[in-house]
Structure formats: C-alpha cells, structure tokens
TrEMBL record:
Domain (VOC) ranges: 3-125
InterPro entries: Glyas_Bleomycin-R_OHBP_Dase, Glyas_Fos-R_dOase_dom, VOC_core
PROSITE patterns hit by this protein: VOC
Name of protein: VOC domain-containing protein
Membrane-spanning segments: none
N-terminal signal peptide: none
Pfam family, one: Glyoxalase
Length: 130
C-alpha cells in the first residue's frame, strides 16, 4: 500500500514559507491552501504543510517549542550534484547553513535550516551502499 506523509511545520510568515519551499521545487496545492496553512507537494507521497503559528498551536496539545530542534527532516536526493543544487537554492531562498557538508564517499549530505529554523538534511547515498 502506498502512503503519503504530510510534514507539518510551524510558520511565522506563511508567504515566506511558500516562497522558500517553492524555491526547493515544491509545488503549491491551491485547493488545500488558505490564510492559515499552505500545502506544498514534492512527490506523489511527500507533502509539507506550512501552518501559521496560531493554527499550529490549535493542533498540538503540548505547546509549541521555541528553542532547540524537535525533529530533523531528511530528504533523499538523486545525486551529490542535486544535494548541492537544492542546498544552494535553500540558502538563496532565505535558509541558513546548519552544519558543514558531510562526505563519506558512498553518502553525501548538506544541512540547512528553513526560515523558521526547521532542520533539513539533504542527502544522497550510493545504491551500492544499500
């Protein structure tokens, strides 16, 4: 059975989040977007829901963390070059470098924080390594 994942991220500026994820190649889904949340699709099974802080707060029961990282979001890409391309687009779109690139030969990755501080690991791993 094929399943979809909807990653919900708290956004302090919804327009900024839409622009950031669009720069990474996500497509806005207008019919699931309003002034409180934006649905952005990367593949037929991966979606990001950028949700305003007020609306996000209504969906959680234990409050919104304002310090530290609660989750690391990892996205596998098709090549080392694509990792660099997406990371560079993320930085140009308002993201920040999270840490230095990681190169293990068979695996390569770069880390970025989106404009709201959500940690994304962009990675490629050789099919020979799996």
């Amino acid at each position: 059975m094929s399943r979809k994942i909807f990653v919900n991220v708290c956004s302090q500026d919804l327009r900024r989040s839409i622009d950031f994820y669009a720069a990474l190649g996500f497509t806005l889904v207008e019919e699931f977007t309003n002034e409180q949340a934006a649905c952005l699709v990367l593949t037929d099974s991966i979606y990001v829901m950028a949700v305003t802080e007020g609306f996000f707060g209504e969906t959680v029961t234990n409050g919104i963390s304002t310090t530290g990282t609660q989750v690391v979001l990892a996205l596998e890409l098709d090549s080392r070059e694509e990792v660099d391309e997406v990371a560079d687009r993320a930085l140009a779109a308002g993201g920040e470098k999270a840490k230095d690139p990681m190169d293990e030969g068979f695996m390569y990755g770069r880390s970025v924080l989106d404009p709201d501080g959500h940690h994304w690991e962009l990675m490629w791993m050789s099919t020979d390594a799996t």
